[in-house]
Design goal:
The protein is an alpha+beta fold. It contains 16 helices and ten strands. Strands 5, 6, 7, 8, 9 and 10 form a six-stranded mixed sheet that branches. It has a four-stranded antiparallel sheet with strand order 1-2-3-4. α8 links the parallel β9 and β10. The chain is elongated. 32% of the residues are buried.
Length: 459
């Protein structure tokens, strides 16, 4: 019988004895509590049993991990940089696992050429440079991407019995977000090289793009112009994109987004860099094998610049509700905020807009003759906006083709991915930290979390 197998059999026998003793102690404790209180406190009992089982599990895990004798690989071993490292001694490491804190025994080697230590067992267990097990780091990444770090810390303690500091949740979550971002870079390179096989062919594929501001620490906005009285920017723009598919209409002829088809990408970066990001995601999702490609956005020029460069021939659609809002705002500027005339004017223009009769909208704007300079400027800008985007506002035609004419999916994404996590009261971010959490949330909410973690484990 191999030495490791004999060692594991002995460990298993010792664990069975220890488990039996722990169960006896736990039952005696619960019975004493029952007699003291006169009834069984179910909540206290189940939590006590869970804690005890975690402790037992920690004992089992510790014994199994140390059954290899510390991972000794001989007096010398390759350091990975072309040198030979020399065995020094065995060193312990306390590791927090999802079960309990444990001690791991590891063979330590020193490489004179590199001037540092080599611990092969840390590499094998994926615990290099950390005292948290992969399972704990996964949970920290999950809560850190979902909620404020302090709340995540509390949830870990209450729901999983894992006690860590808030700063540790922040560091681990951001580190995992950076790993997510790093994992997507080869995808982008492969897409640009034409080496990506699309997930599937689809009849209609939508690319929706938007931007939203995130509050920043002062050094991240220094020298950037802002809109408030100080003239100093307080935020940086996150560019967010989503890709989803459509294969059917409902019984009223309205488009239906395919369930579970929405994936997200985003970052604080230039429009040029983001264009590559959203394009490669679209390639992964099948844009090169799609019957129709539709780009949805508001009137921001950078969005249509990306569409022209990366999705030539795609149907471009300005979000109908954004265009309606533009008309409503113009009516208020010209006729007054609470004016009935403003509402009537905007309603008539929206009716024309819904039919895709943009020329009539432009003509109506041109007939406005406000006296105030502010209103005149608003009329000028609005007329240019609708003229520039006329072909993107043929809503009657788009509806007849069974297409979405609103960008609600990406607007909801801005609220869910960015707003609920990065724009809460008192939050201030660095670009690095914000981008890490954005990458993490895009991965989780886009349904790629399991895929990432499995690939990471294999890697």
């Amino acid at each position: 019988m191999p030495r490791r197998e004999r060692r594991l059999k002995k460990i298993a026998q010792a664990i069975r004895q220890e488990v039996a003793q722990e169960i006896d102690r736990l039952v005696s404790r619960l019975l004493r509590e029952d007699r003291r209180l006169g009834h069984l406190d179910l909540e206290a009992s189940e939590l006590a049993i869970r804690s005890s089982m975690h402790q037992i599990g920690g004992v089992v895990l510790e014994q199994v991990l140390n059954a290899d004798g510390g991972g000794y690989g001989g007096a010398h071993m390759a350091c990975g940089q072309g040198h030979q490292a020399v065995f020094v001694d065995y060193r312990g490491k306390e590791l927090l696992t999802v079960l309990a804190p444990i001690q791991v025994r590891r063979a330590y080697y020193h490489c004179a050429g590199c001037g540092g230590g080599v611990v092969p067992k840390d590499q094998e267990l994926d615990i290099v440079g950390t005292s948290f097990s992969p399972g704990v780091r996964r949970l920290m990444g999950r809560v850190g991407g979902k909620e404020p770090f302090a709340e995540g810390r509390r949830d870990l303690e209450e729901l999983a019995g894992i006690v860590v500091r808030t700063k540790e949740v922040e560091r681990v979550a951001e580190a995992i977000g950076e790993q997510v971002e790093a994992a997507t870079r080869p995808e982008r390179e492969a897409a640009l090289a034409g080496k990506v096989v699309p997930l599937q062919a689809v009849p209609k594929l939508y690319i929706a793009i938007d931007g939203t501001g995130v509050p920043m620490v002062p050094q991240e906005t220094r020298g950037r112009p802002g809109k408030d009285e100080t003239g100093q920017a307080k935020t940086r723009e996150v560019k967010l994109g989503c890709v989803f598919t459509q294969t059917r209409l409902d019984d009223r002829g309205r488009p239906v987004r395919d369930e579970g088809s929405t994936t997200y990408v985003g970052a604080i970066e230039t429009a040029e860099a983001f264009g590559v990001r959203i394009y490669t995601e679209a390639v992964r999702r099948g844009v090169t094998h799609t019957d129709q490609v539709i780009v949805l956005g508001d009137g921001a020029p950078w969005i249509w610049g990306i569409a022209d460069e990366h999705f030539p021939g795609a149907i471009q659609i300005v979000d109908l509700y954004h265009a309606r809002e533009h008309l409503a705002d113009l009516g208020k500027v010209v006729y007054g905020l609470a004016s009935a005339a403003a509402k009537a004017w905007a309603a008539a223009r929206c009716e024309e807009l819904d039919a895709g009769e943009v020329e009539r909208v432009v003509a109506a704007i041109g007939r406005l003759r406000p006296r105030e300079a502010t209103a005149k400027e608003a009329v000028r800008k609005s007329r240019g906006y609708f003229q520039t985007n006329a072909e993107r506002m043929r809503y009657g035609r788009f509806r007849s083709q069974g297409l979405f004419v609103g960008s609600g999916v990406i607007e909801a994404g801005c609220k869910t991915i960015v707003g609920r996590r990065l724009k809460q009261s008192g939050m201030r971010w660095t670009v690095r930290g914000a981008n890490a959490i954005i990458a993490l949330r895009c991965c989780q909410l886009g349904g790629r979390w399991e895929e990432f973690w499995e690939a990471r484990s294999v890697g």
